[in-house]
Amino acid sequence: MKLQEYADRDMLAIDVANVLAGNLESALLNHDLVSLAVPGGTTPGPIFDVLCAADLEWDRVQVLPTDERCVPGDHERSNERLIRERLLTNRASVAQYIPLYVPGKDPEDVLPELESLIAPLRPLSVLVLGMGEDMHTASLFPGMAGLEAALDNNAPPLAIARTEVQPEARITLTAPVLDGALSKHLIIFGAAKRDALDRAMSLPPEEAPIAAVLSGMTVHWAE
């Protein structure tokens, strides 16, 4: 794991966007299609605002969320909504979006269909992750039902996450898909998440799911 510190969040957004663009450009030199998996939430938005203007062959980039809430794509809690509004615009508007949720269907019923879309993308070319203060990443939460199976090296590409503190089910990429990405980046802000990351490095993944994907990770941090 490599830790990169930044003077402020604005500088982080610009620098990380440039790094991601470089990762994608390198991948495009060797593959007809490349994949970019990104989180939702508020953290990546400023990065997306810069990255979407990168001069890349975006029509050869397949973008997918690392996880998705089981809500319609225009819902305020939808990761797809953030990704479409902040990343799939400007030059990046021609990128292909790969959803992790099919509206109107139970997640259990659509997993095989969604996994067939994910399989050709492995290994992911570029991965961006966030992390909560509870050390969850994507929708791999400490203590959730099915976590151990989702962390297993032989886990299927997707898992359904349900927790008592979340109002809806989620569909998430599993640990082997995340950990197998060719370029991996974790974005965290603030002292609390920095402390959480430090704790995670000495805990098993069952207690700190982010620990399952830290090998080879570049962590980008700003206060």
Would you kindly provide a written description of the structure presented here, covering whatever features stand out?
The chain is α/β, with parallel strands linked by helices and 223 residues long. 31% of the residues lie in helices and 19% in strands. The chain has helices spanning 9-30, 45-51, 79-86, 107-118, 147-151, 175-179, 190-200; strands spanning 2-5, 34-38, 61-65, 67-69, 96-97, 126-129, 158-161, 170-173, 183-189, 218-222. The chain has a seven-stranded parallel β-sheet, with helices on both faces. The longest helix is centred in the first third of the chain and has 22 residues, at 9-30. The radius of gyration is 16 Å and the shape is globular.
Low-confidence runs (pLDDT<50, min 5 residues)? none
Average pLDDT rating = 96
Task: Please tally the β strands and state the result.
Answer: 10
* CA-based gyration radius: 16 Å
Termini Cα gap: 19 Å
Main beta sheet: strand number and arrangement? 7 strands, parallel
Tell me the number of helical segments per DSSP (H or I, 4 or more residues long). 7
